[in-house]
């Protein structure tokens, strides 16, 4: 059950994230951080036992492929897994 | 006499007084009770206490050692935070049920023998269902029934296993069991149900999102982590737990990606996080077990924080369906901020708690040379970042503006979230455990 406020906020004011320019700026900053981390991979000494871990950019590429693959796989699995929201109420 | 009292009993017996109290007195009482139990626990030395003779059996109702103490601490912290989060609730049933449930979980962790464990094990099942039924809808009633049947089923299997174990060995002490006899498989299955092993998991995602706003926060802390404790105590180093745990980390994330109810998404990710702990128990090395206990500790906090933030959204907006939300950071900036802290922790972002505890378990898997387990854990880490780290805060607080405007969460909810958020960020919680 909802419990709305007794004092709804007055005028909707404009927020920093409402400005598309600021969102673009944030996304570019994110790209920059990703690029820096990838470059940083050259300088990090890794001492894990598995060979793949020592490949350049392994963790970044693995994370990206895993996330994209997950979404694609989940989209395909929708056909099999998805149940109506009132599944148990029928 | 008081020295032999389980800290869990302070909460259980204390729950009896809740119906008699009202208003501020009740609020103070609900905060003071877990604090009192915590102080009592701190004052107790390591050792075995509270021996009782029942029907010719010697029970040890209170065993405090390094493993049980950590779980006792975090359970009592979770009870305190959950109570603060629920202070605005007038419903006596929910407060009493939460206390009995938390008390039973604490009592179970300190059980030195299998009969005491069984009694508290059933206590958690029976008390917790009222947190679901307290929603007082037909849907919640049915979900609660399904939940109760499975939980009590776990208890019956445990009892059967304990009886066979006693017949075969004449012992009731709860120590390393290991797989072998029929009794051990029954006990393993009972623990596995409560730990939501793959194919035994469905009760978790089914029931938790149907509980009340505050009930889900309480539920998220105890039942499954009690099972993690029981597995760590009875089945550390049991290798079959490694593939079981690895499967647990991976399969729920596919469901989480397509789920719309954001509290159900969190229930799937709870299941996935339990997988890390189960892998750690299966590995059984000192590093792995330390990682498991540390991860349980951190996980209780950040998962409670995430459920608190989604509970606040449900409380104010009336829904947690991702498709109906968006732009709520404008109305609930503090809740959004706390949610992001929880999201960063579960995603193992550097300087947040999950980064430390998850790394311990993954490193232990690497040290053991478990290549595919390591790959699956890495995949699951990316997956949990995707659905708990990004999806939860994005769909609720950002995304496209749903136009919904509401008030910020009540003061007691914000206080609980603030205290919880301060702990995962400390990032060192579990380092010196066990």
User: If you compute it from the alpha carbons, what radius of gyration of chain B comes out, rounded to the nearest whole angstrom?
Assistant: 20 Å
Structural class of chain A: mainly alpha
Assembly form of the protein:
heterodimer
- How many domains would you count in the coordinates of chain B? 2
| Overall pLDDT confidence of chain B | 94
**General shape of chain B:** globular
Query: Number of DSSP helices of chain A?
Result: 2
How much of the polypeptide of chain B forms β-strand, as a percent range? under 5%
| Euclidean distance between termini CA atoms of chain A | 22 Å
Write a short abstract of this structure:
By secondary structure, chain A is mainly alpha-helical. Chain A is built from two helices and no strands.
Q: How would you sum up this structure, described in words?
A:
The complex is a heterodimer of chains A (90) and B (434). Chain A is mainly α. Chain A has helices at 20-40, 58-81. The mean pLDDT of chain A is 85. Chain A is built from two helices and no strands. The longest helix of chain A has 24 residues, at 58-81. Chain A is flat. Helix content of chain A is 50%, strand content 0%. Chain A has one domain (18-82). Chain B is mostly helical and 434 residues long. Chain B has two domains: 1-212, no CATH class; 236-434, no CATH class. Helices cover 70% and strands 4% of the residues of chain B. Chain B has 16 helices and two strands. Chain B has a two-stranded antiparallel ribbon with strand order 1-2. The model of chain B is unreliable at 426-434 (pLDDT under 50). Classes of the chains: A mainly alpha (90), B mainly alpha (434). The interface between A and B is medium-sized, with 32 and 36 residues.
């Amino acid at each position: 059950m909802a419990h709305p406020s007794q004092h709804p906020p007055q005028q909707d004011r404009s927020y920093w994230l409402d400005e598309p320019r600021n969102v673009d700026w944030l996304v570019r900053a994110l790209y920059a951080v990703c690029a820096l981390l990838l470059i940083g991979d050259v300088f990090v000494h890794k001492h894990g036992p598995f060979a793949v871990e020592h490949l350049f950019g392994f963790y970044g590429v693995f994370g990206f492929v895993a996330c994209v693959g997950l979404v694609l796989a989940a989209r395909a699995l929708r056909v099999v897994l998805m149940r109506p929201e009132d599944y148990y109420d029928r | 006499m008081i020295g032999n009292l389980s800290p869990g009993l302070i909460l259980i017996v204390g729950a009896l007084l809740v119906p008699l109290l009202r208003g501020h007195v009740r609020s103070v009482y609900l905060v003071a009770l877990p604090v009192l139990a915590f102080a009592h626990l701190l004052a107790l030395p390591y050792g075995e206490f509270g021996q009782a003779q029942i029907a010719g059996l010697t029970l040890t109702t209170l065993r405090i050692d390094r493993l049980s103490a950590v779980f006792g601490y975090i359970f009592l912290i979770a009870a305190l935070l959950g109570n603060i989060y629920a202070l605005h609730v007038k419903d006596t049933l929910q407060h009493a049920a939460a206390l009995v449930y938390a008390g039973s979980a604490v009592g179970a962790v300190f059980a030195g023998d299998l009969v005491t464990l069984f009694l508290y094990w059933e206590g958690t099942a029976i008390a917790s269902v009222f947190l679901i039924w307290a929603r007082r809808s037909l849907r919640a009633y049915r979900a609660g029934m399904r939940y109760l049947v499975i939980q009590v089923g776990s208890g019956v299997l445990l009892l059967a296993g304990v009886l066979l174990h006693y017949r075969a060995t004449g012992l009731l002490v709860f120590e390393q069991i290991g797989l072998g006899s029929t009794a051990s498989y029954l006990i393993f299955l009972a623990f596995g149900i409560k730990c939501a092993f793959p194919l035994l998991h469905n009760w978790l995602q089914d029931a938790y999102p149907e509980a009340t706003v505050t009930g889900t926060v309480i539920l998220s802390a105890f039942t499954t982590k009690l099972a993690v404790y029981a597995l760590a105590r009875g089945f550390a180093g049991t290798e079959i737990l490694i593939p079981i745990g690895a499967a647990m980390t991976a399969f729920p994330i596919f469901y989480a990606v397509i789920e719309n109810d954001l509290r159900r998404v969190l229930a799937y990710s709870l299941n996935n996080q339990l997988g890390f702990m189960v892998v750690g128990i299966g590995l059984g090395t000192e590093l792995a077990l330390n990682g498991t206990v540390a991860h349980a500790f951190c996980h209780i906090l950040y998962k409670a924080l995430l459920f608190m933030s989604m509970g606040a959204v449900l409380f104010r907006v009336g829904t947690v369906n991702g498709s109906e939300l968006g732009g709520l950071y404008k109305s609930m900036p503090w809740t959004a901020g706390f949610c992001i802290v929880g999201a960063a922790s579960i995603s193992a972002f550097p300087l947040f708690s999950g980064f430390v505890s998850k790394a311990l378990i993954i490193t232990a898997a690497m040290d053991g040379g478990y290549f595919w387990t390591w790959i699956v854990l890495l995949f699951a880490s990316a997956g949990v970042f995707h659905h708990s780290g990004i999806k939860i805060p994005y769909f609720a607080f950002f995304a496209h503006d749903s136009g919904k405007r509401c008030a910020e969460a009540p003061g007691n909810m914000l206080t609980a979230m603030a205290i919880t958020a301060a702990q995962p960020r400390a990032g060192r919680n579990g380092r010196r455990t066990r």
